[in-house]
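Late entry, evening session. Most of the bench is empty. Finally got around to the prediction I had been postponing all week. Sequence below, unchanged from the version circulated by S.P.
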Amino acid sequence: MTTLEGIHIIALDAVAFDHCFTSERWASETKAFTEEGKTGPGISVLMALINVELHHFRPTHIMFNDSLWLKASSVMALSANVRRIYIIPAAEQLHFDPFAGGTPCSSCSSHEHTLLQNVDGIWAVSKAIQNYAWQYGQLQTSFIQHHPWNYLDRALQPLKRRRNWGRKLVAMVNPCLVKGATIFLEVARRCPQYQLYQFMSIRSWGADRKIFEEMEGLLNLRIFSPQCLSSYPEWTQQRQAWKELWDEIKVLLVPSLWVEALGLIIAEAQIRGIPVVSSDVGAIPEAKLGVPYLVAVEKLTGEREPTETTYRRGTATCKSYLVKDVDPWVETLDRLMRDRAEYKRVSEMARSVTVP
């Protein structure tokens, strides 16, 4: 057990647990438990821990955001005054179409709908997710207005104000198809006038081999991978690495085509005074807080290619659609890169509206 900001955190030892239960075995046990109520060795250990701690703690509310806890809390012997609250952190966490199971570790079990109908409350993290839950699943949810600041790591506050007009980097985090990587690629191709390594892609969970092969062919783009953090073995030191990145990023591009649940990377940039050029899908407009710039795109519908590995818009793949529609991105970026007064205006607005 540990304490963080006054909150007691109790958990199984991750290393020991992973040694006993591979990700494949754990996924199999979770599915069997959620859909059939069968408890394997891993689930049994977890349930035993939860029941002991709940007995000692005697909570009034239990909040969770995954199918395992949704099922586990439904079969526990809880006090009648305990309220179960499900948090919807993303559209793909819900079992129903069009985006069910769309990204790694996301939900796809149809048994969850009945379980969701029996919780005491459902919290949607944005209006976009609230609308999605009702439109596709007829789920009544509550949206509690939160300033994006509340979702940021308190250990990073207060966040240093950046004045990065003189910097070079145009960055994108997690470049993959659903996040609009082909927009980023095409923008980089059309902007060779900027100095070498002007563009940077920051690799994350959605890494796509073909996308990175194309990126490696551009002289004005470099890839920042987790391996680059090898000299920062501890979490606190990784924060330092990110601090150094924010010191160099002049403009952040967020060209996502996905139904984004919030867009925390936008808040992280704007709170530092770094302009963000983003798409207008999902909850991104909510995260932007009225700060320029939003670029209209046609979001993905959830329809998959025959391989079931790539989302597409209607009958057009991400790539065939995006390459011809990047002019607004290039024009907006060029304005921010060249016009100092406009850069300062957007930077000041971003900082002022994001810091509560």
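Two things to note before I forget:
Confidence is low (pLDDT under 50) at residues 228-233, 308-321.
The first helix runs from residue 14 to 20.
Will write this up properly tomorrow.
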